[in-house]
Write a structure and sequence with these properties.
OB fold (Dihydrolipoamide Acetyltransferase, E2P); five-stranded mixed beta barrel; globular; two-stranded antiparallel ribbon; alpha+beta; about 120 residues
């Protein structure tokens, strides 16, 4: 039987989103920008709330676009500001810094802003 098809019509809408002057980055290309702030848009496919050592809540999100999947972190201050958007919108636009894993075999995104994707 196989997998159900990816919801193309819904996804194709995300390709129209833009942040400032340029297009949003594709997940597969984000690893090329380690240490830099990037903008990306993706479907929220998983979310987990944890607590920092201070006891404050933070959130991990898994975002997907047509090119791949990426893990993101919203630390306490960002989560306070943008946490509601992470449950309100199934597709998020984020601004984040690309950070490599300690072992150098991958990366995640440290989110600074998250919200409803904007159109041109």
């Amino acid at each position: 039987m196989g997998r159900p098809p990816f919801p193309q019509k819904r996804y194709e809408v995300t390709e129209q989103f833009r942040l400032s002057q340029g297009p949003l980055g594709a997940v597969r290309d984000l690893g090329e920008f380690v240490g830099q702030e990037v903008a990306a848009c993706g479907l929220v496919i998983e979310q987990r709330i944890h607590h920092q050592i201070t006891g404050e809540p933070m959130k991990f999100l898994t975002l997907a676009d047509r090119t791949g999947i990426v893990e993101t972190e919203l630390f306490a201050s960002t989560y306070r500001s943008y946490g509601l958007a992470t449950v309100r919108y199934p597709v998020l636009e984020i601004a984040a810094t690309v950070e490599t894993f300690e072992n150098g075999r991958g990366f995640s995104l440290r989110v600074h802003r998250a919200g409803k994707p904007r159109t041109q």
